[in-house]
Amino acid sequence: MRARRISGIVRPRGWTTTALRGLLFAVLGLFCLYYLVPLIVMVSTSLKSLDEIREGTLLSLPQSVTVDAWVKAWDAACVGVRCDGLKPFMWNSIAMAVPAVLLSTALGAVNGYALTKWRFPGADWIFALMLFGAFIPFQVILLPMARTLGLLGLAGTVPGLILVHTVYGLAFTTLFFRNFFIGVSDGILQAARIDGAGFFRIFAGIVLPMSVPAIVVTVIWQFTQIWNDFLFGVAFTVGDSNPVTVALNNVVNTSTGVKEYNVDMAAAILAGLPTMLVYVVAGAWFVRGLSAGAVKG
Amino acid sequence: MASGITLSGVFKRFGATEVIKGIDLAIEPGEFVVLVGPSGCGKSTLLNLVAGLETLTSGDIRIGAQVVNDVPPRDRDIAMVFQSYALYPTKSVRQNITFGMQTRHVPRDRQEAALDEFSRLLQIDGLLDRKPGQLSGGQRQRVAMGRALVRQPEVFLFDEPLSNLDAKLRIEMRTEIKKLHQRLGKTVVYVTHDQIEAMTLASRIAVMDNGHIRQFAQPHEIYEDPVDLFVAGFMGSPPMNMLPGKLARDGTARAVAVEGNGAPPILFPLPGRLAARLDEPDGHEVVLGLRPEAIFAAGTELPGPDRFVFERTVGVVEPTGPDTMLVFAIGPVEAIARVRPGDAPDPGTAFSFEVDMTKAKLFDAASGLALGARTGGR
Question: Which family does the similarity line name (chain B) (predicted)?
Fold first, then answer.
């Protein structure tokens, strides 16, 4: 699955071409800066002491590097009345995101497989309705969902949040897997059926191992969505069961005492770190999955 | 003991489209039957019906004595080879071949024995740990065959298995499939659009068109006694020359008059045996079918009965190696003659063609059915 080499294609030469290329790189450089400056400011601020922040400018680099702010953000910052830092809420987010990602991805895979390879009357309608779910603004379902969680006895708990994310992730995960499986040859499934395998045997033994790129894309997408979610977190959890996004908001918005910009910055980076990590680890797969099927390997 | 396959009154509809329009076919145990026809004629659908990958609309399919209409593919005692090979891409060759036995819980030692026997037979025993992506087209085809063979079913179904191979490999594999059939003696149903594959492999050929079987007979009979213009035109390469004409008399003998473009008609004398079986009156519109090999350079073959010589200007000369094709205009159509390379003239020159009229076929122009056929048609 190597990309076709395009570096050897003959290009016109001349000063206009050179100038245009120079312009291209200048614009690209500007955009890079535009995206990187906030990160640089955040990292450098988080490594300064409060005094330094008060004396220096926003863009000046830290004179004496200190990780105090990071330690405080992790361990001791006050979230509301509790002063244990982000740590407990980080665990909340992990306990919520990991099962929700796995569940929604697994169910999406089965859905996509059934919708494309075990066609039944009305399959297209069901898919259209599921797709509709991807376009519903989440604010619309806040009240009915709160009522449902209440009836199920899951209101204000991490399992309740897992359920919400799994249900609302299904639209996207089903879409991803359906679009991947539609490119899988029906002949393979026919062969497997003649070989005597049934619905789940074919799914687990043949289809799932083929869909690693789709799984990776879906996991990254779902993890980013669920980890970064604020609305469901703030609506359906209380205090101790808050995910880290809600806790971060509470850290930053604490109105008592001095504003600790360095702690806020460190906390924000900490809260965003897991998604970044997932991108770095699985980034290569992400790109590959997005272009999977574009060219026959 | 292999099982036969019996189809009676088989219909298949997809929504409003009727794809299989009433097919009756009795395939003997151990027979190699080729379903051949143009694309869209329903041959692959018919094979899928036998495999159980499609559901019958009406009719009955029997494998052996059992009616299998409602039997799922896994319980039909069949194995199938697909055009796209349909190998499992994430499994090794070994796993591809044994997957069917695993799902059927065949004991491990019997799996190993079967794998060993058939991978050696197909010369893929050195490739067992590779993935399908690391194999060439011919090797993939062998693995697909191995997967079908290890099951040791009573019936093999082949769906255009050689279509994706290059010409040389296709001929090799064709021979191997024939050898395998001779060795194993199982019933085979083989779908192809390639009439040469059909001729070389089949013990009987079913020529299909538009959801019907036009003719079901042994290869030489399909070739020598096609029941109608469709079968005649489909089988043979280059195709049979079809000259439109009218029944006429040459003296007292019967003949076919083929009109030239303004030129006086050519009278092709009909052999006595064919003429004797004709009931149609003079002036009846017919199509005279002459295969390219029945037209050759005058005087180059040993003399025989019912020869007829005429002269035409050669339009195009197409050497193929063993033979050279001469294209020339006759009446409203272009005809092809097959001559020896040494006899080929330059294009644009006049040339004497000799026709072996004992090999001529005659069809009714209106119905397309063979006239005076020995087997009496359908």
Answer: Belongs to the ABC transporter superfamily.
What is the CATH number for B110?
Answer: 3.40.50.300
Point out the residue among B86, B87, B103 whose CB comes nearest to the CB of A197: B103
- Residue where the block lists tokens 């290869």: B219
Q: Are residues B326 and B251 in the same domain?
A: yes
Provide residues of B within 8 Å CB-CB of chain A.
Answer: 51, 53, 72-74, 78-80, 82-91, 99-100, 103-104, 133, 147, 151
The predicted structure's pLDDT at residue A285: 65
Which among B51, B85, B90 has the least Cβ separation from residue A210?
Answer: B90
pLDDT for position A76: 84
Q: Between chains, do A187 and B88 touch, taking CB under 8 Å as contact?
A: no
User: Which domain covers residue B337, as residue numbers?
Assistant: 244-364
pLDDT in tens, A206-236: 999 888 888 988 998 999 999 999 999 999 9
- The residue type of B316 is V
Q: How many domains are there within chain B?
A: 2
Give percent of chain A above pLDDT 70: 92
Question: How far apart are the CA of B84 and the nearest CA of chain A, in angstroms?
Answer: 7
Same domain membership, residue B311 and residue B223: no
Q: How many CB atoms sit inside 10 A of residue B287's CB?
A: 25
Lowest mean pLDDT among A265-269, A292-296, B82-86: A292-296
Structure tokens at A201: 């045997």
**CATH code assigned at B265:** 2.40.50.140
Task: Count other Cβ atoms within 10 Å, centred on residue B294.
Answer: 19
Find the distance separating the first CA and the last CA of chain A, reported in whole Å. 5
pLDDT (mean) for B183-192: 94
Asked whether residue B374 is domain-assigned, the answer is: no
For A213: left if phi > 0, alpha if psi spans -120 to 50, otherwise beta; the answer is: alpha
Which chain A residue has the Cα nearest residue B84? A187
Distance to chain A for B242, nearest Cα, Å: 40
B303 with B351, same domain: the answer is yes
Q: Is residue B369 part of a domain?
A: no
Cis before B341 (ω within 30): no
Q: Does the residue B372 lie in any domain? A: no
Which H/E stretch holds residue B18? strand B17-27
List CB contacts (< 8 A) between B82 and chain A.
Answer: 187, 190-191
Among A193, A205, A297, beta carbon nearest to B73: A193
Going along chain A from its start, the domains and CATH numbers come out as 15-66 (no CATH), 87-290 (1.10.3720.10)
Residue B252 and residue B132 in one domain: no
Per-residue pLDDT tens digits for A73-87: 998 888 877 788 898
- pLDDT higher at A293 or B361: B361
Four-CA torsion B122, B126, B132, B133, nearest 10 degrees:
-130
> B292 and B154 in one domain?
no
pLDDT tens-place string over residues A169-204:
999 999 999 999 998 889 999 999 999 999 999 999
Q: Which residue has the higher pLDDT, B49 or B84?
A: B49
